[in-house]
Each structure stands twice: as structure tokens, then as C-alpha cells.
């Protein structure tokens, strides 16, 4: 029953899309559903001389994973330190708040200047997109750890390292995971912007822009659907981890 409810709106949306496409009869404005499905059902067939859908998807996944993992590797330790040490938070907070609202696209000129044309610039744009949500949620998670838990660890003779390792990190993990979920979603959004940079010759973002330049909107829509599906899979995976390993968080509320 729940599945039926979840599918109702998407099915109605597809029907409305098809009726509108038939009415407009202009694939440059809105392609028909069957032309998009045809591409999705043949992911191994070459598209517009840019490789097939599977190859471009793998390229995008690799770029997103690299940028996302680098963002997590920096954001989580910095967030833990900012959340636990007020001095570090005071030193970095204004800088974080200054850079956090800047859209990833605004970093494109600097990315090209710093890293040149190539993969590194794309990884940097994805890194910027994922970094701040992970950082902010990590800081919030650490600050929300009950003081009584920290004090109890100190009373039992725990060192700062022990408290961080055995109290702060485990207790703030659900919030860190929430940050990773948000960061992963934004990283996927950034892949299109990243693959618009010079030097990109593959990936779903590149395929979208290249297909747009040739007015192949069915390819554009198919690529967008793939990005959406992978984003859902990534989010569901992280939600599964959250439900399986951090269900105790709900019991504390």
C-alpha cells in the first residue's frame, strides 16, 4: 500500500509529461517518454560519440566519490575539533561562515587557476559542495553530546584522546552521518557543474551539456534521471546505515 502511494505521483507525472510532449510535438522542448526510456533501456549503446551511458555514469561516480571522500576526510576532523574546543571554534567560525554561502560554481575560475584544466578542478568543485554540510553537521553533533557523558568520562580518568575516541565521536556519529547524506546529495548536484569545466570529455554532466548543444533533450533527460536514481541509492544506503547502527539515537530523545 505504501509503495502504491509512493508511486502514484511519479506515475501521474510521467503521464502528464507524455501528454504534454504529444501536444507540443517538439522534442527540442520536451522529448517523449519512450525516447528517454529507449536510452535508459540500452545503457551499453554509444551516445553522440561520447561513449555509452554506463561509461559516463562510472566516470561521474568516480569523480563524485573522490571529491566527497576528500571533503569528509577534511570536514569531519575539523568539525570535531571545532565542536569540542571553543578556542578552535572561535578561530575558524567566522571564516567558515564567510565561505559557506559561496556557491560551488563561483569557485570555478579559482579552481581553474589553482589546479588547471583537468580532473583536479572537478574534484575541487565537488569537494567544496560537500565540505560545508559535513562540517556544520559534525560541529552540531559534537556540541549536542550531553555534558554529563563527557564529565563522567573525565571522572573515570579518561584522557582527552579517550573522550574524543570513546565518547564524542560515537555520540555525534548520527549527526555526522546526516552531514554525509546532505554532502553526498550536494556532491551529486555539483557533478554537473564540475563536468562543465574545460578538460571534461566524459561523465553525465558533460553528456548533459553536450547533448544540450545538439538539442538532444532525450539524452539530457535520461542523464538527469540516472543522476537522480544514483542519488537516491546513495541516500538510501546512508539511511540504512543510520537505521541499523544508530537507532539508539531515537531512544535518547
What does this structure look like?
The protein is an all-alpha fold. The protein has a single domain, classed as MetI-like fold. Helices cover 79% and strands 0% of the residues. It is built from eleven helices and no strands. It has helices at residues 2-24, 33-41, 53-84, 86-99, 108-115, 119-143, 147-155, 160-194, 204-213, 217-245, 248-252. Helix 8 runs parallel beside helix 9 (204-213) and helix 8 runs antiparallel to helix 10 (217-245). Residues 57-238 form the ABC transmembrane type-1 domain. InterPro entries: MetI-like, MetI-like_sf. It is a multi-pass membrane protein. This is NitT/TauT family transport system permease protein.
Q: What is the CATH level 1 assignment? A: Mainly Alpha
Beta-strand residue percentage: under 5%
Radius of gyration, CA atoms, in whole angstroms: 22 Å
Q: Helices and strands: which structural class?
A: mainly alpha
CATH topology: MetI-like fold
| CATH architecture verdict | Orthogonal Bundle
Described by strand count, sense and barrel closure, the largest sheet is:
none
Fraction of residues in helix: over 70%
Name the CATH homologous superfamily: MetI-like
- Average pLDDT, rounded to a whole number, is 86
Q: Give the terminus-to-terminus CA distance.
A: 30 Å
Number of helices: 11
Domain ABC transmembrane type-1: 57-238
Transmembrane segments: 7-24, 36-54, 66-87, 107-136, 178-197, 217-234
Organism: Methanococcus maripaludis (Methanococcus deltae)
Keywords: Cell membrane, Membrane, Transmembrane, Transmembrane helix, Transport
Amino acid at each position: 500500500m505504501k509503495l502504491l502511494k509512493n508511486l502514484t505521483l511519479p506515475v501521474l507525472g510521467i503521464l502528464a509529461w507524455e501528454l504534454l510532449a504529444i501536444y507540443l510535438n517538439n522534442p527540442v522542448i520536451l522529448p517523449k517518454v519512450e525516447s528517454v526510456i529507449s536510452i535508459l533501456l540500452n545503457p551499453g549503446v554509444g551516445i553522440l560519440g561520447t561513449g555509452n551511458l554506463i561509461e559516463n555514469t562510472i566516470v561521474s561516480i568516480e569523480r563524485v566519490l573522490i571529491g566527497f571522500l576528500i571533503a569528509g576526510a577534511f570536514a569531519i576532523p575539523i568539525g570535531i575539533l571545532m565542536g569540542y574546543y571553543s578556542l578552535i571554534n572561535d578561530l575558524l567560525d567566522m571564516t567558515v561562515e564567510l565561505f559557506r554561502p559561496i556557491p560551488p560554481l563561483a569557485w570555478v575560475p579559482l579552481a581553474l587557476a589553482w589546479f588547471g584544466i583537468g580532473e583536479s578542478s572537478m574534484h575541487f568543485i565537488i569537494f567544496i559542495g560537500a565540505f560545508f554540510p559535513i562540517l556544520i553537521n559534525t560541529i552540531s553533533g559534537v556540541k549536542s553530546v550531553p555534558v554529563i557523558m563527557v564529565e563522567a568520562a573525565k571522572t573515570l580518568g579518561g584522557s582527552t584522546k579517550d573522550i574524543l575516541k570513546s565518547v564524542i565521536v560515537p555520540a555525534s556519529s548520527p549527526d555526522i552521518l546526516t552531514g554525509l547524506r546532505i554532502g553526498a546529495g550536494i556532491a551529486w548536484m555539483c557533478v554537473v557543474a564540475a563536468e562543465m569545466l574545460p578538460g571534461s570529455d566524459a561523465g553525465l554532466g558533460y553528456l548533459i551539456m553536450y547533448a544540450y548543444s545538439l538539442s538532444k533533450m532525450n539524452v539530457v533527460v535520461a542523464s538527469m534521471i540516472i543522476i537522480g536514481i544514483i542519488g537516491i541509492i546513495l541516500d538510501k544506503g546512508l539511511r540504512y546505515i543510520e537505521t541499523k547502527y544508530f537507532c539508539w539515537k531515537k531512544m535518547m530523545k
